[in-house]
User: Fold this.
Amino acid sequence: MVDRGLPRGPGSRRSRRWTLGIVVALVVAGVVVSGVRSATSPDEVPTLTDDEGRALVLRGFSTAGSAKSSPDGLPTLRPRDVSRENADMGTNFVRFLISWRAVEPRPGEYDQRYLDDVAERVDWYAERGYHVMLDMHQDLYGGGIVPGEALGNGAPAWATYTDGLPVGQHDMWELYYLEPGVVRAFDNFWNATGAHPELQEHYVDAWKVVAERFTDEPAVIAYDLMNEPYGGSLQGPAFEAGPLTSLYQSITDEIRTVDDSTWLCLEPQAMGVNWATPTGLGPVDDPREGPARIAYCPHLYPLPMDVGGGYTGTTKALVDGTVRTWLGNTMRTAERLGDVPVVLGEFGLDTTKPGALEYVDAVYDMADEHGFAIAYWSRDPGTWGPYDAKGEPRNLVDALDRPYPRSVAGEIGSIEAAEDGLEFEVQPSGDRVARVYLPPDFAAGAGRPEVTVSGAKVTGWHRKERELELTVDTGATEVEVRPGS
Ligand code: MNI
Assistant:
């Protein structure tokens, strides 16, 4: 829709802004109205599981935007940064950005040293008990769309064919998606031009190389097959049910020849779906033995938030409507893809905006209630992130430091986290052990915290991790942890 609605050639900035404003208004109106009509959906999705079949609740960051255009493809990150966020917010998950250009710098040549560097970082997380999802990142196709400028990221320059079409300038980065040269780079990748069938084969093979490298690393729980896919001149269901689903199937088939256990996470197209329109993504068949390990990885960026100035007044109401619609569509998609888990691979905002932390709370509450994993965008320092440029904690740190059950032997249902208590639904099995993260302001003291537990017995306290070990009572369906004894 935006493809047709926005001028491609040169034009005044004001007229483009104006046109974008109309497109935005239409999408917002459509999304909010459709929210009123949306049907009811099932309450929770299943969670990802680890090697021992434990249900996992995953809370963490996308890490990090700094990897997008760094020469080595790595984010600015040291082991102490992982320790720090773990101590400050109790995160147990990371969506770690990797890139095709770094994996395959020349056609058919894979950079094992880059993969060593990624593996080293995976170890930093693994040593601290994290689960890692590797995210094959791209925005605007790749750095090659305008040589010498760090506009896009992801694809290698050798795989970038703009066919001499122009890429004009914008001050909003998203608008570069509409430039003819960028559209053509994607059309060549998806082989809509018929000129480059080899590009997707390279992408599939690059994934196979990554999977070969990480299949034996238990901390790597998932592969996010493509960040924010974009169809070039093909948009919506025509793209998502067509070339996108078919590429996901090819990657899945290829990865499963070397890795039969890591979860594969499918993203819908970014345009529209990030704003709550429905996705046309089709189901992908997992050839592994046993139950499929496919998950759905949408992003959430309500347009009214970008257009309006924060989460207050009318904007708040519009954002709430958008989130409700997004939730309904996400639940229906998860069901359609085969009752798959959902990883909210990105959501985030400038937390200096009024009401921002209330929005963060609302999204975490939704994820708790419906069983989604979260990777907040992003771990980078700045006004969206948990730390400022000097490394000082920002307001987001407190907002994200919430109690949650990290894992349960069995199944886990809805979670409700409040200052006066944490409740979660369970269906225990095996050793019935549940591990629960408790922030310092929930349960004071460095020693064993003073909490009252029902539905389970306290069987341990890991002081450094602030992790309470529980053994769920046989037949219990709910566990409650309250501060105070
Ligand atoms: O906001 C977007 C986004 C808007 C529009 C489009 N198209 C027009 C195709 C695509 C994407 N993305 C949000 C965030 N995603 C990246 C990282 O994946 C972040 O830098 C953005 O804030």
Observations:
- The CA atoms of residues 311 and 317 lie 8 Å apart.
- Residues 13-402 form a domain with the TIM Barrel fold (CATH 3.20.20.80).
